[in-house]
Amino acid sequence: MKPRLLIVSAVPAELPPASPALALLAAGIGPVEAASAVAAALAREAYGAVVSVGIAGSFGRIANGGIAIVAEDILAELGVEGGEAIQLPSDVTLVDRAYADPVLVETARRALPEAAVGRGVTVSTVTATDRRAAELRQRFDPLVESMEGFAVLRTAQRAGVRALELRAVSNLVGVRDRGAWDIPGALRALHAACARLWESLL
Questions:
Q1: Domain count, the chain
Q2: Integer distance in angstroms from the first to the last C-alpha of the chain?
Q3: What are phi and psi of 86, to 5 degrees?
Q4: Could you say which DSSP state residue 153 is in?
Q5: For position 180, which CATH number holds?
Q6: For 22-68, how does the pLDDT look when each residue is reduced to its tens digit (9 = 90+)?
Q7: C-beta separation of 52 from 148 below 8 A
Q8: Angle formed by the axes of helices 183-201 and 102-111, to 10°?
């Protein structure tokens, strides 16, 4: 019997329907909750892969309801404000980015040919101004913003487990115009994309 997939979201509404082949984990909001919950889950059971799923804000290249396959996720707020390099001892490395498994990325690309593939940024404070959105766009050139993506990918990486991140867009990053958000539509798009992806992964 193949190992199950560990499917991780921030909140239960983002999780796909239950299946014997899937272990579902609503880890909580933010990178600390995500990392600690995933680490505990990986310590309890051996999984075939970890898939981080959820809704996200777009930096403009993906419309509401669109799908992003995140191949690289950056912890945007780790470091010095403004992007200046931290002076570290020679034996210390600042880990501010994590990568999805390239085979899983390619599998997702084939299963979801309409999806955009690129970079995400993980933040602890949701962006709420156009100025901050422009700063993140200039520094990192991301497709989407989330609060858990880096944490899930990095935790899986440290445990030696393959991982992937899949996001559905609910809003534009910047000024929080709730009238322009479409969370129900993003959740429908996310669950539909997950159903197609499982056909290729399981």
A1: 1
A2: 11
A3: -80, 135
A4: H
A5: 3.40.50.1580
A6: 999 999 999 999 999 999 999 999 999 999 999 999 999 999 999 99
A7: yes
A8: 110
